[in-house]
Amino acid sequence: MEKFLSLPVKKQNLIIDAALKSFGTNGYKKTSISDIASAAGISKAMVFHYFGTKKELYIYLVNTCVDSISTEVVEKFDDSITDLFDRILYTSKLKIALMEKHPNVPSFIQSAYFENADEVKEEIRTIFSKDDGKTMGQEITFDGADFSKFKDDIDPNLVMNMIDWISEGYMSKMADAEETDFDELYSVFEECMQLFKRNFYK
Amino acid sequence: MEKFLSLPVKKQNLIIDAALKSFGTNGYKKTSISDIASAAGISKAMVFHYFGTKKELYIYLVNTCVDSISTEVVEKFDDSITDLFDRILYTSKLKIALMEKHPNVPSFIQSAYFENADEVKEEIRTIFSKDDGKTMGQEITFDGADFSKFKDDIDPNLVMNMIDWISEGYMSKMADAEETDFDELYSVFEECMQLFKRNFYK
DNA sequence: ACATCATAAACCGATTCGGTCAATTAATGT
DNA sequence: ACATTAATTGACCGAATCGGTTTATGATGT
Q: Residue B44 CA to nucleotide D22 C1', Å?
């Protein structure tokens, strides 16, 4: 592991991104170290040199992802923002900042959360259990948000459901977008939230 | 192939669903016939007995999926429905009817559309090229829909984007829902469309 | 009783798996 | 210039799995 951490950060990220992508799309069992190595442009032997075993690499990825989400989304979250749509925009912005560093983190933790391979599933559960599931979903966004501004005939639960779907769809488009689309996609998302504000609030 | 088609339909569907699921989530190369066989509760030898080769099975699946989407969604589509949200609800209902027969069709055709394995990609392209891409996406829904009812300050393009995201998110929740959730999920979706009607129309 | 068929276990050669190692190359110190 | 060390990889290992075939078994109809 120290071997890997003493690498130039650029190269570290190259390898991590390749691994996150492979594991995230194909799961633990269906991902081979060769896949990761060739995607990262290095030899298979180097991956083992850096991480020891496949399992160690995987667990390392889960830990660093949970950590980075925790420090870059959960901790940076601003509780003082009470407006629901502003909250969504804010967390969305935080997530995008994360994705600019490592685009494949979201799909990877999602996949890891449901991973069932015997060799890793227990350790994964313990890692996630320490975290109250804060790294997943959008509980943070809704908890303590202000729902009182809605028109009286609008069901807040319905709105939450809708937002859940919309941000899932939005994020999945984000995931396989080129870097250029990134900003444009976000600005459309922003307009969307403002549309809701204008039409759903009293 | 005749071997397979002379099976009781129940068993046919069991095998097809197992194959759609495996290929859809893991792609062509990463899916093994053993995966499919054990998921369907039969022996590996039987799959080869029915379909000959892995490739033949895959191509068969693509063809039947394109066919069934074409006959059960595209052809049944009702052009006389002009209201945008009614259109969305209607196509959504058609898709759900399809998913009740074969829950994994959407994820499979999506995966097949982007499949890159050398052994099958050319044949896939020719299959899809005959179809004008009507089996994919929601072009049908938007083409010829009536956007004139929206309030003047609402951008139709923005709404289309939003709907694109929302139905993607909604469908992905649908994909891994149990049968009981099915109806409830749809009724929430229905409420959602009505919410839009009430608040976005003049 | 025999011929037919569906079925799966055992098997085939080939490939790929996770993982190691020797050997080559690049970097470093002197 | 050379010796030493570290970085990197191609070749390799046994085991597992791949796509696909063959064989053995048992049920069925005649």
A: 14
DSSP A159: H
C-alpha to C-alpha distance for A94 and A96, rounded to whole angstroms:
5
Q: Is the CB of B44 under 7 A from strand D?
A: yes
| B200: Cα within 13 Å, side-chain hemisphere | 25
Q: What are the structure tokens assigned to B24, written together?
A: 């859809």
Taking Cα atoms as reference points, which of B161, B162, B157 lies closest to residue B147? Answer: B157
Query: Does the CB of A169 have a partner CB in chain B at under 8 Å?
Result: yes
Q: Position of tokens 């956007």? A: B147
Question: Residues B187, B192, B193, CA angle at the centre, nearest 5°?
Answer: 100
Record the pTM: 0.93
- Closest partner CB to B199 (pick from A155, A170, A199): A199
* Side chain identity at residue A181, one-letter code: D
B165 touches chain A (CB under 8 A): yes
Q: Which residues contact B81 (CB under 8 A, 6 or more apart)?
A: B87, B90
Where do the structural domains in chain B lie, given as residue ranges? 54-200
Judged by C1' against the alpha carbon of B32, the nearest nucleotide is D18
Would you say the C-alpha torsion A49, A53, A54, A56 has a positive or negative sign? negative
Report whether B127 contacts B66 (CB < 8 A).
yes
DSSP B22-45: HHHHHHHHH--HHHHHHHHTS-HH
Q: Going from the first residue of chain A to its last (202 residues), give the mean pLDDT of each consecutive group of 10, the final group possibly shorter.
A: 93 97 98 98 98 98 96 92 94 91 93 96 95 82 90 92 91 80 87 94 92
Q: Are B50 and B4 in contact (CB under 8 A)?
A: yes
Determine the Cα–Cα distance for residues B171 and B173; give it in Å rounded to an integer: 5
Q: Which CATH class is domain A2-200?
A: mainly alpha
Beta bridge partners of B192: none
- Burial class of residue A55 (count of CB atoms within 10 Å of its CB; 0-12, 13-18, 19+): middle
- CB-based contact (8 Å) between B169 and chain A? yes
Task: Answer yes or no: do A166 and B164 touch at CB < 8 A.
Answer: no
